[in-house]
Amino acid sequence: MTDDQMTAADAFAALLAGNRRFTDGTPLHPNQDAARRAETAPSQRPFAVLLGCSDSRLAAEIIFDRGLGDLFVVRTAGHVLGAEALGSIEYGVALLGCPLVVVLGHDSCGAVAAARGAVEEGAAYHGYVRDLVERVTPSVLAARSAGRTGDHDFIDVHVEQTVDVLLERSRVLANAVAAGRTAVVGLSYQLSDGAARLVTARGLEDLSV
After folding, report:
1. What is the annotated role of this protein in its UniProt record (predicted)?
2. pTM above threshold 0.90
3. Is 35 left (phi over 0), alpha (psi -120 to 50) or beta?
4. Which residue has the higher pLDDT, 209 or 109?
5. Residues 36, 42, 45: CA angle, nearest 5 degrees
């Protein structure tokens, strides 16, 4: 199956399979050779848009065992959504035809920790870091109001909130999901073992979370 024939379910399965290879220590390193470089030079047809945290330990092509032309990656600290990130995601869906959008959070996220520090301890931040923290703070408040107080709870809620905000703010993506052309999933990555766990899904109702 070529990348442009993948459904959202196919794309999700491919990512999970790659992540299992990565955690098992048996990566295939697909699409990382000269032939793939030549094949993708004229155009790209990635099978997934991945909105992930900028954390240096969260390199998407490595942890999902993929290669050139497979993933359209957008990264910001704490996977916060600004106009540039939203436009990039819409580009991947509307112009490149990606059937899957992934929001990838992870444990020990510095942006979430900073937002918790601001809420729980009154920590102050300056410059654009303050703007970053303010964008994550609603997720911290939502977790606390729901009585979810574990470290993984804050990460999961922030992933869930990012998916919600993404679909609320992007009519392009919301319409694509409603029409069945695209699905959105939220994953949480564990730094210690390298496994990506499903947190939430939109448009892939057959998945259990």
Report:
1. Catalyzes the reversible hydration of carbon dioxide to form bicarbonate.
2. yes
3. alpha
4. 109
5. 70
